[in-house]
Amino acid sequence: MRYDYLKVFHFGFIFLLIVNSLSAQEIIEVRAGFDRIPLNGNLSYSIDPTNRQSFEFIRKHFQGTEIKDSYPNFGNSPYAHWLYFRIRNYEQKSQNVELITKGIDSLQIYITSQDSLAYSFPNSGGHRPIFRRKTVSPLLIAPFTMMPLTTYGVWVRIRNVHYRLAASPFDLYEQEAGARFLFQKHFLYSLFIGSMFLILLFSIGLVYYFNEKIYWYYLGCVCCALSIMLIYNDYFYLLIDRAPWFILNKNALGVLSASVPVFYLLFAEKFLEIRHKEHTQIFLISRGVILLQYLAMAVIILAGEALFDYKVMFYPPMFILSSTTLYYLAKKIRTPQGKLFLLATVPVTITVILETFSDLHQIPVQSIHDSYYATTLTEVLLLTAGIVYRFRKNEEAKFGLEKEIFVLESEILAIEVKAKNEVTEEIADKLHNDVSADLALTKSKLSFIQEKAAPHTELKDWLFVFERLNSAANWVRDLSHQLSESHTNRSIISMLLNRFYGESKVEIDYKGLKKSEIVDSKTETILFSLVSELITNAIKHAQCTSIFVQLNYAEPELVILIEDNGVGFDPEKVVNKGHGLKSIENTIIQKLKGTFSIESTPSGTVVIIKTNLNQENR
Questions:
Q1: Which of 241, 244, 410, 465 has the least CB density, counted as fewest CB within 10 Å?
Q2: Cα 491 from chain centroid?
Q3: Which of 285, 376, 378 is CA-nearest to residue 325?
Q4: pLDDT tens-digit map of 37-86
Q5: What is the pLDDT of residues 295-314, one digit of tens each?
Q6: How confident is the model at residue 501 (pLDDT cuts 50, 70, 90)?
Q7: Is 205's pLDDT higher than 80?
Q8: Greatest distance between any 2 Cα atoms in the chain
Q9: Range with the lowest mean pLDDT among 284-293, 364-373, 440-449?
């Protein structure tokens, strides 16, 4: 009997301790007109070392420890934690409130009133599909109604697997204020995701059209940043019903987090135009670190372990790779791309440092992640601007090179034409002056011999000789005149005929070009290059069966028409984006002081070049 009294006393003492511990906790006042009530400073917690304790067991044995931090933060604890706080509706009417939190794999909430269960919410959190939650959101929401002048006890069980156990926000919101807060969060997340998807499409386009390493590394940076956000905020549940273990145990986040400094290093090397020959040792060390890092991750994953349980192992590689990136940046800091890269990476680097050393400060990890999204988006936008700048710079250099090649080809062609004309003129002079003179002397000498030898030679033999000499003299005279005229008359025509001889598609009409010496050698060389390029472009790209070229001169204007029956194109897009046509247009306008027009339809294209040949100072 005495034993029974002691047993009753013992249980009564424990009950009084529990009641005393609960009653000692300050009750949070909920009054009309409130928007948000931070719960920090009014929370106590208890640890479940088995991860299996029931709500009833916790209610009976709860011995709360006050949370002194500004928000629930239990470091890397693998155990479930029970949080407890009390609230009271001091109004004469009901109030709709919402408990909002985030960043938890497992969340269960029980609300009691007068020692009985008033509300209970099913298990929620990162391990539960987003579309099966009370509200479709990456944030976790528990809405309930507080009856007038009623006190409630709120029990919250939280747990995280292989990741920091921290909950932020952990606040009580009035229903409309909570909806406003959620809208703001969802808007920012949507802005980040939408912008990153557009940048992702842009990077895929760069890879597809140019297939250069820098664009592959840029694509890797974008994919990592976007994937980390989608996985951490449970958006992958919008595509699948059940997350694979690779995501649930945080290995996906681990691989992505470790890959970020790798892709940024590789991208920085190309973006900053680092020459590996100048930094051979650093290059080899960085590649060795990357190889060892991925090898270590593969071993841990294949062993069935979680990467975050060994995250200390990956701090040195990530530090080495990030330091290498900063070293390259220091070497190129004075260049435009170096300054842009610095501006882009400083904010996100600070954010990453804050998360790495989160044990040393009280900034919520979830708030750091929100900052990470904003700084990452800013970084990617700036780097995208840098890629556009680099692309434009390369295209300008390419355009300059094409222009130099065009000028060089024109100069070479001018030299060839000049040399050909000089040789032709020299041959004409030789025929006219030397060969004709020799024939004349020969004829004179034969006349003299005829007089002396006439009695012994028949007249018909001498007539035959003189006819042949006269014929040769006339032939030499005519040939010299033709050669003399050929280098000054219609050189562009002869060059075009020679260039496209045997090309059955090309027909050249030069009947309208009758006046001799219309075009000076420099102008005709430029025109020949331009017309040749336009004809070649039509042969290559127009899919045509005929190309008609017409040259017509109506003093003082030379008109060249090039017409094909091909598939056509958009002249505005091609002239603006294609440096070939743009170069032709600039040459005609700047060097020939002429005009250049294109009319194109799906049935063919007409190009017209006009230039005034009498202009001075061409």
A1: 241
A2: 49
A3: 285
A4: 998 888 999 999 999 999 999 998 898 899 877 789 898 899 999 999 99
A5: 999 999 999 999 988 988 98
A6: confident
A7: yes
A8: 182
A9: 440-449
Q: How far apart are CA 230 and CA 196, in angstroms?
A: 11
Between CA 436 and CA 440, with CA 437 as vertex, the angle to 5 degrees is: 85
- The pair of three-digit structure tokens given for residue 613, joined into one six-digit string: 């040949």
- Please give the C-alpha separations between residue 526 and each of 412, 585, 587, 618, in angstroms, as whole numbers: 11, 12, 8, 12
82 φ/ψ angles, rounded to the nearest 5 degrees: -100, 125
Give the whole-angstrom CA distance, residue 223 versus residue 467.
91
Q: Whole-angstrom distance between the N-terminal and C-terminal Cα of the chain?
A: 126
Write phi, then psi, for 502 (nearest 5 degrees): 90, -5
Question: Alpha helix locations (H) across 211-303?
Answer: 213-232, 245-248, 251-271, 280-302
CA atoms within 13 A on the CB side of 469: 18
352-374: b (≥16 Cβ within 10 Å) or e: bebeeebeeeebbbbebbbbbbe
Count the helix, strand and coil residues of the chain and give each as a percent rounded to the nearest 5: 60, 20, 25
Q: Is 255 exposed, middle or buried (0-12, 13-18, 19+ CB in 10 A)?
A: middle
Triad 31, 22, 88: Cα angle to 5° = 15
Stretch (H or E) spanning 65: strand 65-66
Instruction: Please identify which residue in the block is written with the tokens 């060097």.
Output: 591
CATH 1.20.1070 for domain 184-401: yes
Tokens (6 digits) for 271: 């973006």
Main-chain phi, psi angles of 536, to 5 degrees = -65, -40
3-class secondary-structure state, position 491: helix
3-class secondary structure, 31: coil
Record the tokens describing residue 592, joined without a space: 């020939």
**3-state SS record for 106-140:** EEEEEEEECCEEEEEEEEECCCCCHHHCCCCCCCE
Q: How far apart are CA 328 and CA 319, in angstroms?
A: 14
547 by DSSP, 3-state: which?
A: strand
**pTM (2 decimals)?**
0.67
- Dig out the tokens for 68 from the structure: 């002194």
21-174: CATH architecture: Sandwich (2.60)
Relative to beta strand 80-89, strand 151-159 is antiparallel
State the pLDDT at residue 432.
Answer: 60
Cα(330)–Cα(349) distance, rounded to whole angstroms? 15
The two three-digit tokens of residue 462, written as one number: 């001498």
Domain ranges of the chain: 21-174, 184-401, 491-618
Look-up of token digits 């606040």: 171
CATH 3.40.50.1260 fits domain 491-618: no
* DSSP string for residues in 430-454: IIIIIIHHHHHHHHHHHHHHHHHHG
Backbone angles phi, psi at 609, to 5 degrees: -115, 130
Q: Same CATH fold, 184-401 and 21-174?
A: no
Q: What is the DSSP string of 301-354?
A: HHTT--GGGGGGGGHHHHHHHHHHHHHHHHHTTTSHHHHHHHHHHHHHHHHHHH
